[in-house]
Amino acid sequence: MGQDLSSKLSNIVESLPFLASEVGIAALLIGVILIDLIFAKRNKKYLYAIVGIGLIGDVTYLSLLAEESVNKLMLFTLVQDNWSIKLRILSDVCVILLSIHLYFNSTNESSKTKLSGEGEWMTMALGLLIGAHVLTMANDFIVAILALELMSLPSYLLTAYKGDKKGVEASIKYFLFGAVATAITIYGMSIMYGLTSTIDLQGIASYNQPFSPLFITGAILVMMGFVFKLGGFPMHIWVPDVYQAAPIESVAFFSTLPKIGATVFLYRFLVETTLIENTYVNYFLLSTGVISMFIGNLAAIFQNGMRRLMGYSTIANAGLIVIALLNKDEIAANALFYFLWVYVIANYAMFYFIGEIEKEKGTDDLKQIEGLGWSNSAALWGPAVILAVVSLIGLPPLAGFTAKLLIFTSLWELYNANSNLIYIIVLFLGLLNTAISLVYYLKIPFFLYRRNVKGHIHLNIALSRFIVILGVFLVLTFLIPSLII
Amino acid sequence: MLGSAFLFCIGLAIALTKRSAIVALMGVELMLNAANINLVAFSHRDPSFGEGTAFSIFVIVIAAAEVCVALALIIRLFQHFRSVDLHKVNTLKEE
Question: DSSP per residue over A44-60, as a string?
């Protein structure tokens, strides 16, 4: 830190080329705002198309041209490694899927229920995306907390997007929990800063003492805010309410995107600061993971609405993610990455489906989909929805199976390395939870293909095609995992 | 350190127990300010001076942005429910 101003400035200038992707997204955001301002009173659906195409460009840039950098960027605050590049591609894919969803949803909606304000949608989505990008690279508490807030604030607003009674209620609950979680995180960071006099992760790692109880407390407080974003155990209460009341597009969106950033930062935080080797932190993570799996899976059994069901399944999946964080080796990083990909794809397929059903039937009740699988239009999307469900359960021959296998393998290796009995107990509890989750996930195909009932439904053709594409993708990634790893 | 921990606990208690949405928001602000006190106090011991202070400025900005969003939501909430009492705002239920 003892550099003079000019060397700091040159450091910033040198690290700018590595941030081309973020700069591009910011430019896109400003472009969206300008276009929205200049051309008034028209159907601005093309904004979604612009954003989608822009982000496809960004994905191509990241996958082909982006380079890793060994040095930390921007005065030691950002990391650019292989893992952050790959996860930024995944975040981009989330927003592309969102813009597809919005684009095709807005065509067939009547003007009454149509979500107005394409510009606002895309501005907030891109803001969230920048937050997610920065959080995957964050190496510093200030950057992490700014990125976390950049993801939180648009989420609160998108929950209340329609401005109806339910949405606002869910949003205020979401906000209060979120604000408390952020405050707890910041307080934890202030404790860690007080003990180590530094705010970057490597500096904290060089705090070379046996970790004091206060330090561990601080670390756990820091993790709270990120566990909140995941929807894990102590911070899970908002999930079902928000999933029930928010517009379907935004539910699909922030059941996926914020999780990526939060997972990556938690992983970096634990591994870079070597906190993961501490027993108490391990116990905290284990209990969070196991309890959130149990809460999610047990509560989901009794749900009749598909949205709430997906909400509780999110909590259960957050538990899995937290457990996968325990292993600091390469295998855990790969498992997490693969799991996130599969999770994003399967979730989007499910939410495309739920959104369409809601639009046709007016409710997300499970009884509404009785026998729909036998209708003529369902020849393709019906099986695809089943593929998504089975992948969420984690059965072969789908990518979800590989993801769960990788996570449990990493847990098994942890047991082999430490021979601590608790890991094997958690492994069995995880497998037990997979069995429990069968009960409620299978409700969806069961109702969809109920015998002797023949339903009729006409889905939006484009979206049902995308459901099929996502389903096929899930099979492909099982057969050829190297597609994404 | 003790003072800020005290302030943090008061803030947490207010945010979790109070009925009014606005008072709960004030509780959150107290929690953030407790963190600020910590940061500024500890930055005295920091040899590379300034990181803590800079962090606390960022925290203040974050708090301001949060309040903006929260007040917009609370206004909307009041329009629907004619109240900011969180106990009355309870229509979403388990089915």
Answer: -THHHHHHHHHHHHHHH
